[in-house]
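Exercise: predict the fold of this chain.
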Amino acid sequence: MLWRSLARPIWACPAVESVALKVSYMKVEGKPPPFDPKIFLARIGTGKTRAALRKRQIVFSQGDPADAVFYIQKGKIELRVSSQQGKEAILATLGVDDFFGEGCLAGQPLRMATAIAVTECSVVRLEKPAMIAAVHDEPEFSALFISYLLTRNIRIEEDLVDQLFNSSEKRLARLLLLLANFGKEGKPEAVIPKVSQETLAEMIGTTRSRVSFFMNKFRKLGFIEYNGGLSVHSSLLSVVLHD
């Protein structure tokens, strides 16, 4: 079963070993790894659909049957959860090359959150049987997916520690740096796509007034700028690192 293979240590996974050997060989030969998930997904004929989403369009709602995994080719997707009392929280904002809806692979019968397009998006929907077949049949895709799951798990643990031990000011600074892709491969984004202060408040668990206060503080200190969008400077790290 899939969950058993995912529970094994990553170094014991044949798919990862196979990919490691191929990548090692390619480095010796001076060739870049050829695997491209977009090309691979394009070859899947059954159990796959591709959709262009409008801004604010719902992909699936909390409580819907969990029967597919989604891959983001363009745009950003927001995962939201709401309580019976009407309280809402943003669990994550995902971007290009991210997966979501993977809970169905672990036996999750219903969606635990609502997925909404933050911007215009292009996503690939893989039905559960098609996703399982892809993970089993393509070692490089399997390694890519496992790596994504591990990275996502680390991010969730970091978010939990952030909520438990950091002030709302630090949580906001960390969120802005994450939205600007600081710490990830590649260059940070020069300008973060427009995001409301209400959304930022929901993501860090505080009020809009507190977010407004700290945003003005960060701007006066030169950590951020407003230029038709939000620019974040690396100097904002000082807020996160300060004890």
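Check your answer against the key: The mean pLDDT is 83.
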